[in-house]
Amino acid sequence: MESRGAPEPADVLADVAQRLGASLDLTQTLDEVARAVVERLGFGVAALNLVTDEGDLEVAAIAGPQEIRAELLGRRQSAADWTDLLAASEPRGRLRFLDGRKGGEDPSHLYFFVPDIPVSDDVLAWHPLDALFAPLYGGDGALLGVLSVDLPHDGLRPDSGDRDLLEVFAIQAALAIDHARLYADLQRSMDDQKRIQAELRHRALHDALTGLANRELLLDRLDQALARSRRDGWGIAVVFLDVDHFKLVNDSLGHGVGDELLITLARLLTHHLREVDTAGRLGGDEFVLVLEELSGPAEAIAVAERLMEAVKAPLLVGGEQVRISLSVGLAMATTTSTSSELLAEADAAMYRAKATGRARWEVFDSEMRSEALAQLDLRRELSSAVAAEQFRLHYQPIVDLVTGQPLGFEALLRWEHPTRGLLAPAAFLDVLEDSDTDSPVAEWVLERACSDAATWLGGLFVTVNVSPRQLARPELARRVADVLARTGLPAERLWVEITENRPVDAHQDIADVQRLRDLGVHVALDDFGTGYAGLTYLQRLPADTVKIDRVFVQGVVGDRVSRGIVSAVVGLATALDLQVVAEGVETVDQAHALAELGVSLAQGYLWAKPAPLPGSGLPVTRRLSVLSEDLAGELRRLVASLAMSSDRGQVARLAVQTARRSLGADAGLLLLLTEHGSAVLAHGEGYSARLLKEFEEVPVESLWPICATLRDGTPVFHQQAQLRVDAHTQVRTAADKITGLACVPAAADGVLLGALGMTWTGPVEFADALRGHLLSIGELVGQRLAQLLY
Questions:
Q1: Of 218, 162, 111, 123, nearest in space to 2 by CA
Q2: Where are the beta strands (DSSP E) in 258-334?
Q3: Of the residues 231, 387, 620, 684, which has the maximum number of CB atoms within 10 A of its CB?
Q4: C-alpha span between 427 and 75 (Å, rounded)
């Protein structure tokens, strides 16, 4: 090197060592090695070839002109070519030199790059086919790669000094690369460790089945949300969701399908939430949502209704079509709420939703906590009621509809509560079916009913209701056979009633029911027409009897639709050779109408109320409540929601939503009176933007029907014929579509504050219950508006 005016070898090596030791990054180290060769060792091109996992050599770094880098970087040489290269080259100390002047066997396949330089007659000059390379070995002696050099700056083949320097450089380069690779392996190990730690943290904070937040993470997110709410003023809601009759899905379709259902539901929840919201699973079929940045309870209610609507369609789970519904509880945060309190309040509201019929939402109010505690007490008391012999059976006769002669009796469960007295199933059945106590209770009912019936004379039969969970258990037929053997009751005198109020696998049901019929037991399909079973299900199910639900029996006199349904069921049963029993018969007129339609058996208060032992009883009639529980429940939920509304806009939105939902109205709006004698739109839904624009401010003297209510507080109830005559011109033009219109005042203490209006485009009849319900909504809204105003 001295002959070329190069620096001292020691200086070069010191500089190279300093540069190579400056970084442990493998890519940077490779680049530094290649650049040091070009800058300090006097070559125009340097290529670093690293051994790959497959044993090939790949160009990993290049120093030299850009066109050479573009051509060579990433190129590979196979292990076989490397062996050929060793065989064709000559040792130069630790280096290898391929002499391009010797010719011989064509070595072109060994070259990635042949420089465009002239061939000189000088034997010391660099030849275009010359190649000098240094194998790079790691500390363990394994080949790391090969350093190739080309195009010496002075155009000459390297002398012994050049080669010695390159050899020492190659050792340092190999050491630096070895260290960088070890460091990279260590970094990867630390990273695959960090990922494991992150995964462990994720698992500790998320539900293993659904991937949603678990209780710990959910409470932490809720704490953070409450802190942000106190700082920024946004509303916070906790929504507690529970799958109705989830145990039934597990029992009838298996726990695998149940798990898939929970996973599917978790995806639905996350799909319908915003980024600021959090979804979590507490366990079982209980899910919780934390909703942030809300302006009021109406937004939380809208989320709940979206989710309930989303699960109405059958879900395809495990190859099965499963229908579910949700019971939902909502709780709005106050300035003093804690996360645990909010969760408990939403839970209490969810239990209210279950207790009032399921498949609905409820907003937490002050009465719910005591009710939730009462439910927990009831669950605990039920667990000991069997051992304490507190259950009783009452019996109601099933009679020949023509003669009135009892042919059998239905066994009905009652609970002789030690402090509350005799309880009908409505007071405890939901809690019972959602607990593990239902199985021993069901076994007790079957045993006692068969024991009682075995003592009856005249061949009277007894009917026992079998819950869907019982039917799904393959041992049911064996247990029935054991009970019949113990009590001595002939199998033909036992009727098993199956309720069709559940999602079912018809194939499984057929097998379960057939096992019962093989014993000689009579099978009846209870509450027909109100559940999930269709005509195909009825056709294939091996039943003996169909029991028409009381909802159709109540309308068989005077209601053309109910009478038509009963007639159709009788015709279908006759074609399928099934008996028909009518439930809930209360009047002589109903009994005559049913007999005319061909119904042969019936039961109801017309003949006897359920009694502790079979007897004749006295005819008792009873009328249904004028206002259904659904409408009463809507008012209760509205009261709770209004109490949490902080401005007129929230009140207006709740009013319109409640009226539309409970009455099935297509559109609605709430107008508020102003001081200067006009009305302004507080909230509207379902109408066109053009029409809502007209209501932004309306003189109360206007011809709109709602303005008549605004003038003197008189409610307006129009059906289609009246709309064409009395209503405003723009309403009349739509009268071919609009079939009903109602406007009620929003007033408090005699002060008129506004009016609520609704329109329908479907069947509507303003029965007293619906009129009263709308008037109640208007009154509640008026009271809350007055509280906010004054």
A1: 162
A2: 278-283, 286-294, 315-317, 320-322, 326-332
A3: 684
A4: 80
* DSSP structure string for 549-580: -HHHHTTTTT-HHHHHHHHHHHHHHHHTT-EE
Query: Residue 727: what pLDDT?
Result: 62
CA distances from 558 to 527, 554, 593, 606, 621 (A): 21, 9, 10, 18, 17
For 585, other C-beta atoms within 10 Å of its C-beta total 26
Q: Read off the pLDDT of each residue in 677-691 and give the average, rounded to a whole number.
A: 90
d(CA 295, CA 299): 7
Residues whose CB falls within 8 Å of the CB of residue 25, separated by 6 or more in sequence, listed in order: 180, 183, 184
Select the more confidently predicted residue: 139 or 704.
704
Which uninterrupted H or E stretch holds 10? helix 9-20
Report the pLDDT value the prediction gives residue 616, as an integer from 0 to 100.
30
* Residue 302 pLDDT exceeds 60: yes
Do 110 and 144 form a contact (C-beta atoms < 8 A)? no
Q: How far apart are CA 754 and CA 741, in angstroms?
A: 17
Question: What are the pLDDT digits (tens) for 206-227?
Answer: 898 999 999 999 999 999 999 9
Strand partners, 361: 328
Task: Please tell me whether residue 614 adopts helix, strand or coil conformation.
Answer: coil
**Residue pLDDT, tens place only, 613-648:** 643 332 222 222 223 445 777 888 888 889 888 899
Higher pLDDT, 112 or 775: 775
Are 499 and 527 in contact by the 8 Å Cβ rule? The answer is: yes
Judged by average pLDDT, the poorest of 144-148, 308-312, 609-613 is: 609-613
Q: Which of 741, 713, 736, 744 is nearest to 726 (CA)?
A: 741
Residue 464, CB half-sphere, CA atoms under 13 Å: how many? 27
Degrees to nearest 5, angle at CA 541 with 539 and 546 = 80
- Select the highest-mean-pLDDT range: 93-102, 274-283, 519-528: 274-283
For residue 286, count other CB atoms closer than 10 A to its CB: 16
- DSSP, collapsed to helix, strand or coil, labels residue 286 as strand
- Indicate the average pLDDT of the chain: 82
Using a pLDDT cut of 70, give the percent of the chain over it: 85
d(CA 695, CA 45): 82
Whether the Cβ atoms of residue 576 and residue 557 lie closer than 8 Å to each other: no
Apex CA 139: angle with CA 136 and CA 145, to 5°? 20
The pLDDT of residue 534 is above 90 = no
**Inter-helix orientation angle 629-643/297-310, to 10°:** 140
Task: Phi first, then psi: give them for residue 727, nearest 5 degrees.
Answer: -80, 170
What's the pLDDT at 228? Answer: 93
The pLDDT of residue 504 is above 60: no
Residues 6+ apart with CB under 8 A from 653: 296, 298, 683
Is residue 333 within 8 A of residue 235, CB to CB? The reply is yes
696: closest CA among 709, 687, 659? 687
**H helix intervals, 541-663:** 550-553, 560-575, 588-596, 629-643, 648-663
User: Within 10 Å of residue 232's Cβ, how many Cβ atoms?
Assistant: 9
Structure tokens given for 443: 């076994």
Q: Specify burial of residue 296 (Cβ count, 10 A radius: 0-12, 13-18, 19+).
A: buried
Cβ atoms 782, 754 nearer than 8 A = yes
Q: What are the backbone angles phi and psi of residue 613, rounded to the nearest 5°?
A: -130, 155
β-pairing, 143-152 with 43-51?
antiparallel
